[in-house]
Amino acid sequence: MRDRAMLTFVLSHACPLKCDFCCSNREVVGPGRISRDMMADCLIGFGALPAVERFAFTGGDPFLFLEDICAAVATARRAGVTQPFHMVTSAYWAKSPDQALDTLDRLRQLGLDLIGLSYDREHARWVTPQQIRDVCDAAAQLKVRVNLTGVFWDEGDRVEALLPDIGAHPAKVKVVNMPVAPIGDARKRGTWPAPSTVPVSRKLSCGQPGDYSLSVYPDGAVYPCCSGGFQIEGRLSCGNVHADPPARILFAASANFHVRLVKEFGWGVLYELVAREAPELLQALPSLERASGVCEICRDLNLTLADRLAPIYERVEIEYARTRAEFEWRGLPGGADAGRWCGGIRMSLAELVDVLTKDRGRRLDYLAGLLEIANGSDRGPAGDGVRTATL
Length: 391
Prior knowledge:
disordered C terminus; TIM Barrel
């Protein structure tokens, strides 16, 4: 039941392509880039946290900084970091089948187990279908997984229209088709908000309960998701690697109930609660029908209604923590009546529920995995570490 995390390096806005919808332009990402040393320090620091299960590199295009990435990962490996990583790219660099194979094999030996490819009508202006196929062929040979994502102005368009044979590729490519979002360069084209045909049901949650995709930017700021600029505009920063230790950043991400709510419940639950408990706020809520997607709603809610929604968030947070603790408690040997160690104190289920209801600090410790329910004579962690020491 513990949260898991991936740390993604948004290395730079730099890219040899100029897609007209890019959400990682200079305006969003900033003018600098993440250095080799900064990468290595983050890999080692975050790699020491049990919750961090993977790393990723994106941009811009991270293959512009391939030597820095390889050197930083090699340094982290020597320091004992074992997590796998993946990279997201347009495959502009794959000039031949041999180059695609040699490059992926070099990365695979360092721990790459997934390659993310971006291909759609904009990317196709610079990258050929054969380059995509060459990378997919190399991935299949090396047993590296492939995710292929297309972003389209026409919401009915598909990657499969450009690569009709991709579904039968031996690499078993996972294809995702997405509409353009009003962020970055896309804002310079057309009028926003534009009419959206995306069903409301697809705008309610970003999914992946318990999985946090932390994004670190060139200025060191870290955000609890990868929404390509919406999280920056929404002021959802959970710290900065130049000032905050990795454990504190991870704690801040998992303790943000606004983010947890959209991942685990969705905006539909929030809107129902507002209608029942605070109907005067209904007109102020972002329109689910007009919004381009879940990330735009997330940004607007946090920017304009955070203070007014706080009482509702607190009630949901309490009920969520109580329910989660009861489920976890009953799943351990001995059943509901057994006494257990929680934060260095032996208590009953009723006592734990009372603590989680009344003490928000301990509640956040529990949600962040610092306050653990231990069975039998195992006291478990005291639960005072990150929050008490560093927040």
